[in-house]
């Protein structure tokens, strides 16, 4: 049935919401009014946390942004939830109509709140309406786990993710800015079961992820090797790297700038931002009877001046 019924089912379990005790609301307000000492000692804190509660949509529990709607009894609801409640106020079940709550919108505009990544080190305080935009770009926002082989949902800062890669994904860790890696696969014709490898390099006081993956590009199976920087894009640009692969007197060289791990490995892979090796060439480099993939990839990371 419609989603509206869910809300009503919910309300039946919580009858006190249907008939809000108005005295209680008044009491709450007068409490804050009389508590002058508390407000004087902690300016804004008590006030803003109760205003913040007012700005929480009773249905989705998210912070509300304009247009904020209200029913004729004054219950508010966010613009995302309004179309889903079939014109019934989810709090009092009265007709919702189309009343905007300008007063609350204006109160919100006067609020200043800390960035939600405060616990990650961001000290920023932002006006209510620009907080979301800041948070979407905050340099303290956690990174997703860069491991490609699973649907890992771990997030954290770089030191946390480095430890996570080592401990939970058993990723190879290397110190130094040069590498010489052999990728061996006995049945290279099964590209579908994506061959992929991740190695983490530590150099210049930073961490880099070297990815090696097999994937199907249209009809053609290809291999790709690329580097990602464990940090933000503006810092990634300070580094360059080169990759080399070859055999039988031939050599392919790639030079690039590592991508930030803010870009998912799939996004980087699908933009071909790395050393691409067609399978035919890869098997040719491998030598032998083309039954086994044996690639030696060498490379170097350096810091741009
Ligand atoms: Zn909502
Ligand atoms: Zn209502
Ligand atoms: Zn922030
Ligand atoms: Zn992970």
TrEMBL record:
Protein EC: 2.3.2.27
EC main class here is transferase
**Gene3D superfamilies associated with the record:** Apoptosis, Tumor Necrosis Factor Receptor Associated Protein 2, Chain A (2.60.210.10), Zinc/RING finger domain, C3HC4 (zinc finger) (3.30.40.10)
InterPro entries per the UniProt record, alphabetical: 7-in-absentia-prot_TRAF-dom (IPR018121), E3_ubiquitin-ligase_SINA (IPR052088), Sina-like_RING (IPR049548), TRAF-like (IPR008974), Znf_RING (IPR001841), Znf_RING/FYVE/PHD (IPR013083), Znf_SIAH (IPR013010)
**In which pathway does this enzyme or protein participate?**
Protein modification; protein ubiquitination
**Keyword entries, A-Z:** Metal-binding, Transferase, Ubl conjugation pathway, Zinc, Zinc-finger
Name the family: Belongs to the SINA (Seven in absentia) family.
The protein's name is RING-type E3 ubiquitin transferase
Q: Which organism is it from?
A: Coffea arabica
* Taxonomic lineage: Eukaryota, Viridiplantae, Streptophyta, Embryophyta, Tracheophyta
